[in-house]
């Protein structure tokens, strides 16, 4: 019996897609100019390769990505440049982050029937406190009994199972009695499945992106309202990874 719904945050409850696009383009141009490089094409190829390698390891720290980029290019940026650029990066993402239209309505219905939790990976360097995008959405606090920023305070980031287990313990819920809703295949779907929860993969219809291949069977939804429909149909566990 489902007793709790746990959510991811970015691209699950809020849309930050345009914020990331804007912030990435701005950072790429500023780094290129600051390092006084000549070949934009080669630079962008190296940048994207290093970023992809970090993202594959669930590394969200732009500072670490940019430091590795500078090392690869044998360049040393001016003092505090990258630190200031990371702050500006997340400021731009925050300014272009908005709740999905249906978020509050869906949470309002769910909180009347289920315990609600939220697990989001940290922004910035691992194991350091950061000004998470959640800070700009205090309106969400009243809906959740427990909110966890994974990747801070020695708690590993998703897809590690520990954040899910901590949240379940705080909600006093068994894994088999919880659903986890998120957009990221590795961090959210695989992570929650490994922790014993029922994952639901949100591929929001308003977000344009290249979605990875589905490696095993899980329920998919294309907006949060469809989660209400799944619950009304007494969703069955379907994370068959055989």
Structure report:
The chain folds into 2 domains: 4-15 and 99-232, Rossmann fold; 18-95. With 242 residues, the chain is an alpha/beta fold. 33% of the residues are buried. It contains 8 helices and 8 strands, in the order ββααααβαββαβαββα.
* C-alpha end-to-end distance: 23 Å
Question: What's the architecture of the largest domain in CATH terms?
Answer: 3-Layer(aba) Sandwich
Chain-averaged pLDDT: 90
Q: How many structural domains?
A: 2
Poorly predicted tracts of residues: none
Q: Any idea what the CATH superfamily of the largest domain is called?
A: HAD superfamily/HAD-like
Q: The CATH topology of the largest domain is what?
A: Rossmann fold
Shape verdict: elongated
* β-strand number: 8
The major sheet is characterized as: 6 strands, parallel
Determine the number of helices (DSSP H or I, runs of at least 4 residues): 8
Looking at this protein, list some descriptive labels:
six-stranded parallel β-sheet; 8 strands; two-stranded antiparallel sheet; 242 residues; 8 helices; Rossmann fold
Structure summary:
The chain is of the alpha/beta class and 242 residues long. 40% of the residues lie in helices and 13% in strands. α7 (185-194) links the parallel β6 and β7.
Give me the secondary-structure topology.
Blueprint: E1 4-7, E2 14-15, H1 17-34, H2 40-56, H3 62-72, H4 81-95, E3 98-99, H5 103-110, E4 115-121, E5 146-150, H6 161-171, E6 178-182, H7 185-194, E7 198-202, E8 220-221, H8 225-232
Parallel strand pairs: 1-4, 1-6, 4-5, 6-7, 7-8
Antiparallel strand pairs: 2-3
Helix pairs in contact: 1-4, 2-3, 3-4
């Amino acid at each position: 019996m489902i007793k709790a719904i746990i959510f991811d945050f970015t691209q699950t409850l809020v849309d930050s897609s345009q914020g990331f696009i804007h912030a990435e383009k701005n950072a790429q141009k500023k780094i290129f100019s600051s390092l006084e490089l000549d070949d934009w094409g080669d630079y962008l190829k190296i940048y994207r390769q290093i970023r992809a390698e970090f993202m594959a390891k669930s590394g969200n720290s732009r500072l670490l990505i940019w430091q590795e980029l500078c090392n690869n290019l044998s360049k040393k940026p001016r003092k505090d440049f990258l630190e200031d650029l990371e702050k500006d990066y997340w400021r731009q993402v925050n300014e272009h982050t908005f709740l999905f239209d249906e978020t509050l309505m869906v949470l309002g219905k769910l909180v009347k029937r289920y315990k609600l939790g939220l697990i989001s990976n940290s922004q910035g360097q691992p194991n350091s406190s950061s000004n998470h995008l959640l800070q700009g959405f205090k309106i969400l606090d009243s809906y959740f009994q427990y909110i966890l920023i994974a990747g801070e305070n020695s708690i590993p980031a998703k897809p590690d199972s520990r954040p899910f287990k901590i949240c379940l313990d705080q909600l006093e819920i068994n894994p088999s009695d919880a659903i986890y809703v998120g957009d990221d295949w590795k961090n959210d779907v695989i992570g929650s499945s490994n922790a014993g929860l029922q994952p639901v993969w949100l591929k929001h219809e308003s977000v344009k992106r290249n979605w990875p291949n589905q490696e095993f069977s899980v329920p998919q939804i294309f907006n949060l309202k469809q989660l209400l429909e799944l619950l009304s149909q007494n969703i069955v566990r379907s994370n068959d990874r055989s």
